[in-house]
Amino acid sequence: MKNYILISAFIFTGSLSFGQNPEKLDTIYANDQKNVALFFPGAIGQGITGTKNFVFTYNREKQQYFGLLQAKPGKASNLLVIDTQGFVYSYILQYKKELSRLNYFISQSQSIGKEKPEPDSIQKPKAQKIRLNNKAYYQRFSSYLLRKKQGVSRIKNRNQGIVLSVENIVFNKDLLYFVIHIENKSGLDYDINFLNLKIQTRQRGKKKSAQDLLKEPVFQYKVPAKIRSGKKVEMVYAYPKFSLSKERRVLLVLNESNGGRRVSLKLTHRDINNPN
To answer: How far apart are CA 124 and CA 231, in angstroms?
Structure first.
């Protein structure tokens, strides 16, 4: 009962903080005979169910991307999950004797918001309208880039039949747009866990090391959840404009969900500082 009150209070105050209208939540079904696996785009930091007849377990010591759900007969409840990046996910839970689905691969777009709202997340209706207009513009420009294909020299790398390449870097209206291609030349489908862009600061000297700073995209376009065997996909990631010194570089990291195939791609300061 205490947990249920905590979740209800969090969702209520969260809706005020984010300035969003209540949305219909997806329902996840579980029973006491099978484990239902939930795979999140970020490592799980906290997971709470509203009633005791639903149990959500995850590794609390070594943060991982999946948790297991089981249920006993009883009333419907809810599940609240917060990942280590602060993204919040909320679902309705129901007991069901026969399950048709045992695995849920959850994308970041399914998040209902962030645990700590951004300073500009509470906006007046006029400001929200401007932001929606920006999103429409980002989408149109990203579509144009995929059609135009005016590229830089292709920068690519491959691992285990997965080819990751940057076809173009374009500066437009304070944003850097990265046109990215992924080709699956392996015999297995590839489920995307995440594609991260990190800025690496390389330390020179006898003890060489690197510090990574993750950058969050402002907009993503045509990012798939799965790449079928033998297929090629193209997408666009847009970031606030930045430049790099000679001691820094960009590292793109493509990671597979529930698998070991990982591809990384390095871009120099020249690639970033001289966009189209």
So the answer is: 44
Strand 113-114 to strand 77-83: parallel, antiparallel, or no bridges (unpaired)?
A: unpaired
Backbone angles phi, psi at 175, to 5 degrees: -125, 150
pTM for the model stands at: 0.52
pLDDT in tens, 152-194: 557 889 999 999 999 999 999 889 999 999 999 999 999 999 9
CATH number of 133-273: 2.60.40.1150
CATH number, span 2-114: 2.60.40.1550
Size of the chain in residues: 276
- CATH 2.60.40.1150 residue window(s) in the chain: 133-273
List the one residue out of 214, 13, 241, 213 whose CA is nearest residue 117. 13
Using CA atoms, how far apart are residues 227 and 224, in angstroms rounded to an integer? 7
Here the contacts of 150-158 (C-beta below 8 Å, separation 24 or greater) are: 150/276, 151/179, 152/271, 152/276, 155/265, 155/267, 155/271, 156/265, 157/263, 157/264, 157/265, 157/266, 158/185, 158/263
DSSP state, residue 85: T
Comma-separated ranges of CATH 2.60.40.1550 domains in the chain: 2-114
